[in-house]
Every structure is written in C-alpha cells, then in structure tokens.
Design goal:
Elements: H1 9-13, H2 30-49, E1 52-55, E2 59-64, E3 77-80, E4 86-91, E5 95-104, E6 110-121, H3 126-132, H4 137-154, H5 159-163, H6 167-182, E7 187-198, H7 201-251, H8 254-270, E8 276-279, E9 287-290, E10 295-297, E11 300-302, H9 308-312
Antiparallel strand pairs: 1-3, 2-4, 5-6, 6-7, 8-9, 10-11
Helix pairs in contact: 4-6
Length: about 325
C-alpha cells in the first residue's frame, strides 16, 4: 500500500470545495392530499357539532337529534353528546313569576292585584313537558292558567277579602287550583302570593270613612263606660254618706246635744274674740255670737249694753 503524499493546508485552499446539495421535498401524492383534506373537514365538522356539552347545576337537559328525543335526559355536569343534536336545558330550581292583574270582585269592582307565583318542574316530567309544550312553557301554559285562575277566584270574593286576613285562604285556593290544572304538565306550584292590592279611589275613601266612624263609635263607648263608672262611684259615695249619717244620728241624743251646747257656750264666753254671747230664751237654746249693733232675739231687742244675764232673762222677769 503506497503512502499518500502529505499535502499542506495551504495547498488545499486553492482547490474548489464541493458543498452538499440541499434535500429536495418530495411532492404529495393525490391520495395523501385527499386524506389531508378529509381530516381537516372532519375536524371542522366535529368542532361545529359541539360533541361536548356542559349542563349547569340544578338543571336537566333533553337531547333533540333532528326531531328524535331519547327517553334518557342529561343531568348536570360535562357530557359527550351526539353530533349536531340540540340540547334543551330546563331548570329544576324554584322559579318566580311576577305579574300585575286587574281582577274583578263580587261587588263588580276592578282591583289591581300584584301576584307572585313560586313554581318548579318535576324532574320525571321534563321530557314530556318538552314534547307537549316546549321550552316556552311559561308563556304557553303557566301564564294563561295563572291569569284565568286568579280572576276566577277573586270574582267570587269581596274586595275586603283581598286586603284582610282572609287573603291567606284565597292564596291557598289559588295554589290548589293551579296544581290541579298543571300537575299533568309536570309543573308544581309551591306558593301563590298576593303582594299588593290597589283598590279604586271611591272604595278607598269609603273604607277610610268607615274606619273613622268605627273609631268614633269605640271612643263614645269608652266615654259612656267612663261615665257609668263615675256614676257608680258617686252612688257608692252617696250610699256611704247616707249610712254614716244614719249611724251617727242613732248615737246622738237631745241630752248630748244640750251638753255640747253648754260646752260651746263656755268656750265662747272665755274666748277673747267674743263680744256678746246671747243665750236663747228656750230651755235648751243654743248660744249666738252677735256683733255690734242691735239684734232681735225672741221678739226682744238686745242692745250692746245688755249683759249675759239680762239678755237671758224671760220677758216676764223684773
């Protein structure tokens, strides 16, 4: 084997160095192009069909595949559905419907009434409700039934029932009637609340006047009761005074009165303020206090100069 002669690097610089040729991409075959196009179209179709669906909590969904509705419903959660099928979700929660109605009463009055209906759907009746009514069951079934029932029941009661304690009984009757009509649809009425009653102006004025008259009547009853109590008090007081006088009169004798008169005469005679003490000319005459001037006693004129003894003498005495 012959040895190759050594070449310097400088010798190689002058020579052309061949670079590797770049790799050329091979063109796709018609079959590969068809498969690629089909894959892209399939991916687009799957995305448009929305195979994954999410059902919120407290809801139940019905699957509608071009008019075919399976018996099984979809509960809350994440599910894979048939492509291009439509999902109709129904809330199982308690829902509120508020409406204002002009309802009649048995007096022929038109009363404005605010009604609140609490309702929910029975889970076993969701598919039937969708097949017989649809998603807009509130507008198609619930609202007309509530309006008709409320007006029918209020027409048989008076306007006073709508704002008195009897309104609770009316609410119960409305709920029972609605449940009897809507139970076959799978709709349950939990409560029917009568929130606000607006009576005609004429009726409101009459009610206010009636209440004022009742208040005046109660006030007069109170006054009469008070007067009767006062009359009873005075009667008892008069009876007590009469009993006292009767008891006292039975214990007072003529001798006692004469003795009291003598004591009074002595006290008057000893009083520094007494001027003239005149003793009556009768046997048990009571003393009299006379001021200045002349005074007549038993047909005799007594002057200030007379003494007790002179004034007390009988007319025939010297």
């Amino acid at each position: 084997m012959k040895a190759q002669p050594y070449q310097c690097i400088e010798d190689l610089t002058g020579k052309d160095i061949k670079k590797p040729a770049p790799n050329k991409e091979l063109p796709l075959s018609p079959r590969q192009i068809a498969i690629l196009i089909f894959s892209v179209l399939l991916l687009i179709a799957i995305l448009i069909g929305q195979p994954i669906v999410s059902i919120p909590a407290g809801h139940l969904a019905v699957v509608d595949f071009f008019g075919y509705v399976p018996k099984n419903t979809i509960s809350a959660g994440l599910h894979v559905k048939t492509l291009y099928s439509t999902i109709h979700s129904f809330s199982l929660k308690t829902q509120l419907m508020e409406l204002t109605l002009n309802v009649p009463t048995n007096e022929g009055l038109i009363v404005e009434l605010d009604v609140s209906i609490l309702h929910r759907i029975h889970p076993n009746m969701v598919r039937d409700l969708y097949l017989t009514v649809g998603n807009n069951y509130k507008e198609v079934v619930l609202l007309p039934e509530v309006t008709s029932t409320v007006r029918s029941l209020t027409a048989s009661v008076s306007s006073k029932t709508l704002y008195s304690a009897s309104r609770d009984e009316l609410s119960t009757n409305i709920k029972d009637h609605l449940n009897g009509k809507l139970a076959v649809r799978g709709i349950e009425i939990e409560q029917a609340l009568l929130r606000k009653v607006v009576l005609p102006k004429l009726v409101t004025t009459a009610i206010e006047q009636k209440l004022m008259a009742e208040q005046d009547s109660q006030r007069m009853e109170f006054v009469l009761m008070k007067e009767r109590q006062e009359a009873e008090r005075k009667r008892i007081e008069a009876q007590g005074i009469s009993d006292f006088q009767s008891i006292v009169s039975q214990g007072i004798s003529d001798a006692l009165l004469e003795w009291k008169g003598i004591e009074a005469t002595e006290r008057l005679a000893n009083s520094a303020n007494a001027k003239i003490v005149v003793v009556g000319n009768s046997k048990n005459g009571l003393p009299l206090i006379l001021g200045e001037g002349s005074h007549t006693l038993s047909g005799k004129t007594a002057t200030p100069g007379e003494t007790k003894a002179e004034a007390g003498k009988p007319e025939g005495a010297a």
